[in-house]
Amino acid sequence: LKTHLNAQPLSSMSPTMVFRREEAADEDDWGKLMLVVGGSGGPKIITAVLQVLINYCMLGMPLFESVARPRVHEQLVYHDSATTTAEKDLLEQGPLIAVPERTHNALLSRGHASLLDVDYAGTVQAVAVDIETNTLSAVSDIRKGGTPAGY
Questions:
Q1: Which residue, among 141, 84, 81, has the nearest Cα to 118 in the 3D structure?
Q2: Handedness of CA 98, 100, 105, 107 (dihedral sign)
Q3: Residue 40: beta bridge partners?
Q4: Distance CA 95, CA 87 (A)
Q5: C-alpha distances in Å from residue 117, one per residue of 43, 67, 143
Q6: Residue 90 — φ and ψ, nearest 5°?
Q7: Beta-bridge partner residues of 99
Q8: Which of 103, 108, 131, 150 reaches 20 to 30 Å from 9, CA-CA?
Q9: Using one digit for the tens of pLDDT, what is the confidence trace for 95-146?
């Protein structure tokens, strides 16, 4: 049995907490917890988590839609070539997840010469706190059946 005490993990969940600070709060006040997001999926974790954060916090999408929305991933080198991957997958429970053709065209027009459809672009779990009611909403990614592991 071989052990590595100082081994670095190959990836992480990219756990991210987003806080909303009140306008009159002092600089040391973190504010109120608004969103917690984490993921799985190897090198696609960071881009998956980031896209959920953008969808929810900046675009104002509902939490479920923010997590379920199709994703794009730029690996820089994917199978020995510079490739941008765009998610396209018919899920076991029925719905098709696919990056819209408009997004494909926009990427191509911006110089992404190689665009590859892939069936998996990472998995995200998220919990949001409603700022008005202080209630929690949780979403487990539909890419893994919509339930957390171990449930």
A1: 84
A2: negative
A3: 123
A4: 13
A5: 16, 19, 15
A6: -90, 110
A7: none
A8: 150
A9: 888 888 898 888 888 887 777 788 888 899 999 998 889 899 999 998 887 7
